[in-house]
Amino acid sequence: MIQNELKKLGLSEINDGTSTGSNWFSNGEIIESYSPVDGKLIGKVKTTTKEDYEKTIASAQEAFKTWRTTPAPLRGEIVRQFGDKLRANKAELGKLVSYEMGKSYQEGLGEVQEMIDICDFAVGQSRQLYGLTMHSERPGHRMYEQYHPLGIVGVISAFNFPVAVWSWNAALAWICGDVVIWKPSEKTPLCGVACQKLIQEVLKENNLPEGISCLVNGDYKVGEFMSQDKRIPLVSATGSTRMGKILAKEVAGRLGTSLLELGGNNAIIVTPDADIKMTVIGAVFGAVGTAGQRCTSTRRLIIHESMYDKVKDAIVAAYGQLKIGNPLDEKMHVGPLIDKDAVKAYQNALVKVKEQGGNILVEGGVLEGADYESGCYVKPAIAEVENHYEIVQHETFAPILYFIKYSGDVENALEIQNGVAQGLSSAIMTNNLREAEKFLSAGGSDCGIANVNIGTSGAEIGGAFGGEKETGGGRESGSDSWKIYMRRQTNTINYTTNLPLAQGIKFDL
């Protein structure tokens, strides 16, 4: 279906999955990538062995010696060129993202645009890696701080955003002077190979060391190589909370740093002062966009009792208009889940909803027929539940939306919203200024992202992205997220002929 795009992106039937730039090699097993769109084989990728991994580390270490002393604005110029390379290949890469992952073509293009946007952001940031100056208590002394590159940054990304989240990390790490080793999801390996080929072209055109950007492929075992490796001071990982807890323990055990973007259980609060039309748009896209496979997908709709029936009727009616099918067809609203394991998790969640006392408002189910031959297409479902249900407390990566009724004031809704282990994204629909400000206050939403009159998904790269509690506490993308990719150093310069000690300590010889 996308053979021309694969060819332009430099992909073949069998691809090496280990790369240190122009040097491609792999001696491991084969990963077969099947599209959830139609169940067809897209291509194959060879995995990374321990010996392959060691070669990759050696290449990255050697490249770091050159890259760390390259002026930051010149590093930014390389990132700018990568952004241009993405612009030239946006349509092809966007279609590959859509076909290999299953999100709509428009969302695939949007993901590549996120990559372009973070490149633009990073180019500007490359001239603003600021430190501070401080007044010394000692006369004739100057104090300041500066930031230096860390070294090798390991990136482990998830299937739902197979290219964008890597670029969030890589673009900033590169302008900070770090080199990057990337392990893409084994469910979307071809997207990783395609991106590596693009940055490889940029590095080659600028006669730069190939190890600035490296690629490894495989399952959790390759991720363990990275999490246990003292030569990688920072590991950025996106995925489930279960995975994050394991990785964090490994990295902390060697006193490394982990940047974690884990599960979400995101809610929209709908108050009596909400705009119904805006609520429907935000809630429906948040719940069914990417077939509910975003970490920021809307899982819970917390609706005031006075608005409950109106909101319920409007959203149920909107679900009746959803078109489910091939995501490359731009008329479709919902594509497939990533694989049949995800379908099973979706089915199990709906069974548990009923077992725990929930009421199904919009029936789910697996779609069958010629248009759904992959077996990965499901119907978005809606259930009336209580927040304390065990299944509601956990994230199901599928298009299941839970309706929860609240009474009283917005504090009651906030108690429900915050009453889960995750803390990524949140939103409130209200035209009441006091409710909005309460939601955004220290006593309001406990999530890393808190929106007013927009949904829970669709973050811009200019703001720091991440969440609290079991979401991991990491921050990527905009604002001052660049700081985690660097080490801070405090410097004191004495320009006198005396050597006074701090705190007035006397030490005379």
From TrEMBL:
Enzyme class: oxidoreductase
Superkingdom of origin organism: Bacteria
EC number, UniProt record: 1.2.1.3
A family per Pfam: Aldedh
Gene Ontology molecular function: any one: aldehyde dehydrogenase (NAD+) activity
Keyword ATP-binding: no
Record bears the keyword NAD: yes
Active-site residues from the entry: 261
PROSITE patterns: ALDEHYDE_DEHYDR_GLU (PS00687)
Aldehyde dehydrogenase domain segment(s): 28-490
The entry's keywords: NAD, Oxidoreductase
Family according to the record: Belongs to the aldehyde dehydrogenase family.
Quaternary structure annotation from Swiss-Prot or TrEMBL: Homotetramer.
Protein name, per record: aldehyde dehydrogenase (NAD(+))
Record organism: Moheibacter sediminis
